[in-house]
Model the fold of this input.
Amino acid sequence: MLWTAFLLGLAGSLHCVAMCGPLMLALPLSRSERWGAIGQTLVYQFGRIGTYILLGLLFGLLGKGVALAGFQQVLSIVAGGMMLVAAFFAVEWERTARAVPGMQRMTRWVQQRIGQLMRAHTLGATLGIGMLNGLLPCGLVYAAIAGAISMADGRQGGLFMALFGLGTLPLLLLLMSTGQRFSPEWRRRFRLVQPALLAVAGLLLLSRGMHLDLSLFESAVPKAGLECH
Done:
């Protein structure tokens, strides 16, 4: 089930390019030294994925409490349903998230801090920008968090979010290495693949949630045995 997270990140990486691409292209990277720019890029991505891991740890522990209450299967079904909705319908999860009390204030604070760090040309600032970017409203991240909750374990939730972040890396690194956005033709191709990968990830979580534990039923019903007369 953890590879579902990687599929989700890979499927949603085009969304990441659209949402985070402008910020990434505007990073104060070292333009004179290629290896310096690569190092700063990796530091930024490490900060972003680090925030995802912390969120996974937190919400994985939350899911553990929910699982102890007997709702783990429900969580898996809800997470899978969210991914299927994201695969087939254009739902603006970000707009929904901004309606949550306090979310707009937090988003403004994050954006202001990113703006301040953008004026600094240090690795620490680059790391901070990446970490703060992981807190910006993103429907794809919310779907991944739902999957992390369904893991019902802090470490598993952190690993789920780590694999999700790694899934988003290939396209984002390609964007930063080329320094320009993808052409309309490539975006069209990505859009054809994205719903299929999201649907596969959603179906995997749905399958996990709908898997019934028949052990109690089997122990309650006596097994039929052969009787010789």
Observations:
- Residues 2-210 form one domain.
- Residues 212-229 have pLDDT under 50 and may be disordered.
- The chain is about 80% helix and 0% strand.
- Residues 34-68 form the longest helix (35 residues).
